[in-house]
Amino acid sequence: MSTTPNIGLNLAQRLDRASGQLAGGHVDWLAALRRGARARFDEIGVPGVRDEDWKYTNIAPALRDLPGPVLADEVVFDSARVGMMVAALPGLDGQSPAIVFVDGHFVPGLSRLQALARGVSVSSLRELLGRDPGRLQGRLGKFLPPTAHGLIALNSAFLDDGAVVEISEGIVCERPMHLVFVSTRRNEAFVSQPRNVIVAGGGSSALVVEHYIGEEGARALTNTVSEIELGRGAAFGHVRLQREPQSAFHVARLQVEQGEGSSFSSHAFGLGAALSRTEVAVTLSGENAECTLHGLYAVHGKQHVDHHTMVDHAAPRTRSNQLYKGVLDDDSRGVFTGRVLVRPMAQQIKAVQTNPVLLLGDGAMAETRPQLEIYADDVACNHGASIGRISEEAMFYLRSRGIEPREARRLMVYGFAAEVVESLVPEALRESIGALIGTHVGTLRAGERVA
Amino acid sequence: MLLRIHDLHAEIDGKPILRGIDLEVGAGEVHAVMGPNGSGKSTLAQLLAGREVYTVTRGEVTFDGKNLLEMPADLRAREGLFLSFQYPIELPGIANSYFLKAAVNAVRRHRGLSELDAVDFLVAARAKMKLVGLREDFLHRSVNEGFSGGEKKRNEIFQMAMLEPRLAILDETDSGLDVDALRTVAEGVNSLRSPDRAIVVITHYQRLLDYIVPDKTHVLAGGRIVRSGGAELAREVEERGYGWITGATESSDGMPVAAA
Amino acid sequence: MSSGTQAKDLVDDGEYKWGFVTDIESDVAPAGLSEDIIRFISAKKNEPEFMLEWRLKAFRAWLKMAAEEGEPDWAHVKFTPIDYQAISYYAAPKKKDGPKSLDEVDPELLATFEKLGIPLAERAILAGVAVDAVFDSVSVATTFKEKLAEVGVIFCSFSDAVQHHPELVRKYLGSVVPVADNFFAALNSAVFTDGSFCYIPPGVRCPMELSTYFRINTANTGQFERTLIVADEGAYVSYLEGCTAPKRDENQLHAAVVELVAHERAQIKYSTVQNWYPGDKEGRGGIYNFVTKRGKCAGAHSKISWTQVETGSSITWKYPSVILQGDDSVGEFYSVAVTNNHQQADTGTKMLHIGKNTSSTIVSKGISAGQGQNSYRGLVYVAPGAEGARNYSQCDSLLIGDKCGAHTFPYIDVRNPTSQVEHEASTSRIGEDQIFYCRQRGLTQEDAVSLIVNGFCKQVFRELPMEFAVEAQKLLSVTLEGAVG
Question: I need a surface site. Which of A137, A420, B188, C198 has the fewest CB within 10 A?
Answer without folding.
Answer: A137
